[in-house]
Amino acid sequence: MSVKLYVLTCQERINAGILDKTLYWLARTDWGEPPEVCVQDADVAGDTKYCQTENYRRLLQRIVDQRPNYALILEDDVVPNRHLEYNVHQWLSEIGDAAIFLGSLYNPNVRPLAETVTLRNGFIADAHSVYGSQAFLVPLLVARHCLSRWHDVEGLQDIKLSRHTARIPSAQILYHRPSLMQHVLSAESTHGGSSHWAEDFDPWWRADDDDGPIAKSWETIPGWFDWPIFYEEMVKTLPHQSTIVEIGSFLGRSIIHLAQTMKRYRKCLRLVSVDSFIGSESDPMVMDAVSAHGGSLLAAFKKNLLACGVADCVEVMINDSITASRHFLNESVDVVFLDGDHARSSVTADIRAWIPKLKRSGYLAGHDIDTYASVGEGIEDVLGSRAILIDHSQNLWQFHNTWENRQRASLIW
User: Fold this and answer.
1) Is residue 178 reached through a cis peptide bond, with omega within 30 degrees of 0 on the bond before it?
2) CB–CB of 105/137 below 8 Å?
3) Domain 218-408 falls under CATH 3.40.50.150
4) Band (407; pLDDT cuts 50, 70, 90)
5) Is the per-residue pLDDT at 210 higher than 90?
6) What are the pLDDT digits (tens) for 44-78?
7) In this structure, what is the dihedral angle of CA atoms 336, 342, 345, 351, given to the nearest 10 degrees?
8) Closest CA relative to residue 341, chosen from 367, 314, 363
9) What is the tens place of the pLDDT at every residue in 326-385?
10) By CB neighbour count within 10 A (0-12 exposed, 13-18 middle, 19+ buried), where does 126 fall?
């Protein structure tokens, strides 16, 4: 069963960086090939709704010409499930080759048909309740049918596709459960539509996952970690596609907690671990561990990620903090947590390097405010004391990147 992936976008979304975010997250899934990106044709005149539906029609024509068995058509403002290809093929096996259907991997609260029996991983929808075209799975036969009758139904592409499919004898509108795609609410609608999202989206769900090995808990990993409340609050409050960078991960205890918490809350976040994995002279205990592991903690760190089931959740950046900061654009990171070299000069340098990388209202935080006097001294050198909060219960400090706090710290916005 060949399934070809398409992403429909427009120049405005490309310029705003929205498409790039969707392509980044698609590349993090198990989908074997990059999607075919279809940019709305510039020669389409008319209002935005007409342009959108006309370009969708042209995409259907491209699909009919290319003749894949199925087309998975995504809009450019989505976050995908990480096991997308596997789950789609499992669902198609469940549906069966003989079925005539229009499928959706995104459910913004569409109504099921009351008289039907639900699928194991989905349900049959009432065609008249269908809306939202974020992730349609379209068989070639259905694409041909809808294309030949495109203008017979009024409305946007979600209305046209669903109502046309419903008129095919024995055809069904099928929705995957849970949703394998989420709508990014921060991306404004190009046609003035209302905001909607999938309440049952799970970026980490995998069909038949019960058969897999049980992952170890972060609590089994050696290390120092007394700020789980802070990390959990960040995961709960940050939107999908947010970025959290941890400086200094040792053997992975804290970053594994962060990744496992992300999965528990069904969030899709970019987690980056920055560490040289060779320790620093300011921390003799870490150096002892490095020596015990043959000069580098990297192999043990990666082994722990794998054993805890989060190897696919964490980007590992083998570098020092300052060099790593240069790989991030200004105002691109939501949370930076500093737990690397605790020397005063290093803390000062880390803060200065990472402050510009924070998004507005992002957080810069760090560990060991009560353990090392040098941490407080480094903070005072750059931020002063009025701009930070100290939580002694978690042995951490934090700077919230608001206009008021930047003023208190004498930082230029």
Assistant:
1) yes
2) yes
3) yes
4) very high
5) no
6) 767 788 888 999 999 999 999 999 999 999 999 99
7) 10
8) 367
9) 999 999 999 999 999 999 999 999 999 999 999 999 999 999 999 999 999 999 999 999
10) middle
Token pair of 60 as six digits: 């259907």
Residue whose tokens read 């990014």: 184
Those residues whose C-beta lies under 8 Å from the C-beta of residue 43, and which sit 6 or more positions away, are none
Question: Other C-beta atoms within 10 Å of 214: how many?
Answer: 6
257-289 burial, b if ≥16 CB within 10 A, otherwise e?
A: bbbbbbbeeebbbbbbbbbbbebbebbeebeeb
pLDDT-derived band of residue 213, with 50, 70 and 90 as boundaries? low
Residue at 140: amino acid letter = L
pLDDT-based confidence at residue 42 (cuts at 50, 70, 90): low
Based on the number of CB atoms within 10 Å of its own CB, is 103 exposed (0-12), middle (13-18) or buried (19 or more)? buried
The pLDDT assigned to 188 comes to 52
Residue recorded with tokens 């989206």: 201
The whole-angstrom separation of Cα 174 and Cα 125 is 6
What separation in angstroms does the CA of 373 have from each of 127, 157, 379, 384? Answer: 65, 61, 10, 14
Residue extents of the structural domains in the chain? 3-205, 218-408
Q: What is the CATH topology of the domain spanning 3-205?
A: Spore Coat Polysaccharide Biosynthesis Protein SpsA; Chain A (3.90.550)
Whole-angstrom distance, CA of residue 235 vs CA of residue 269: 8
What gap in Å lies between CA 96 and CA 84, rounded to an integer?
18
- Apex 3 CA angle, 109 and 208, nearest 5: 60
> For 139-185, how does the pLDDT look when each residue is reduced to its tens digit (9 = 90+)?
999 999 999 999 999 999 999 999 999 999 999 999 999 999 999 86
For 375-396, b where at least 16 C-beta lie within 10 A, e where not — what string?
bbebbeebbeeebbeeeeebbb
In this structure, the number of other CB atoms found within 10 A of the CB of residue 43 comes to: 6
